[in-house]
Amino acid sequence: MNSISKILHKKSKVCNCALIPFVTAGYPDISTTIQVLYTLEQEGADIIELGIPYIDALADGPIIQQASKIAVEQGTYVEQVLDILKKVHLKLNTPIIIFSYYNPILVRGIHKFILEIFNLGVKGLVIPDLPIEETDYLILLCAKYNIELILFVAPTSSTNRISDILSKAPGCLYLISNTGVTGIRTNINYRILKLSKYIKSKTNKLIMLGFGISSATQVSQVSKWNIDGIVIGSAFMRILSKNYTQTLNMNTLNEVGNFCKIVKSSIES
Questions:
Q1: Which residues act catalytically here (predicted)?
Q2: Which of 43, 49, 116, 228 is catalytic?
Q3: Of these residues, 41, 43, 46, 60, which one is catalytic?
Q4: How confident is the model at residue 190 (pLDDT cuts 50, 70, 90)?
Q5: Among candidates 172, 187, 180, 186, which has minimal Cα distance to 64?
């Protein structure tokens, strides 16, 4: 069992599932990102997903797209995200998953990128636009450095497609809770419950659920669905963007921490 899967498995033994906040690196600035990472750890995040900003973030909804755009315009690229990791990886105990589109990794150099994030303690990697047909090399490379490459399963995936993904996935799966992009939604697609049960009947791989989960009520509901980890992104990024400035806002940071504490409590209740 790979490192992220081990964490998810461990959390499932003591509470319903793991809490996995997502934040876009460099938004609203590098310093705030670092403080947000520490705050999320302090308030109960089990794993943190750190997004490398990308101007063509097609899988992301408007909140994260705008955050990525601003971060890129301010000069946050792969190098700056690595600098963030250099500053936190010896102090931060919460495991990090990197969320990146494929192009920044290709531009950096696949092997170079994987080696760099390994040296900075990253435990998982999510690439939303990576075709399943192109995963073989990355799976082998990530396995060499004990980084868990996490593959997506969509609500629209056919049973044959799901079988292909399950056969290739080296560790846990990222189940998309709604069709379309990330973002805040008022309702969770109940087909996901059926789909998660189907996946669990076919494999012992663990499931992270994301895309569209944005409230403590939704988290409480979904955490009872035999899901192993819940990713929340746009709701955290909305807090960071609500009082947007290019400098650290302590009230906003406190609000991020309070929201993290609330959703963590909804999992454990």
A1: 49, 60
A2: 49
A3: 60
A4: confident
A5: 180
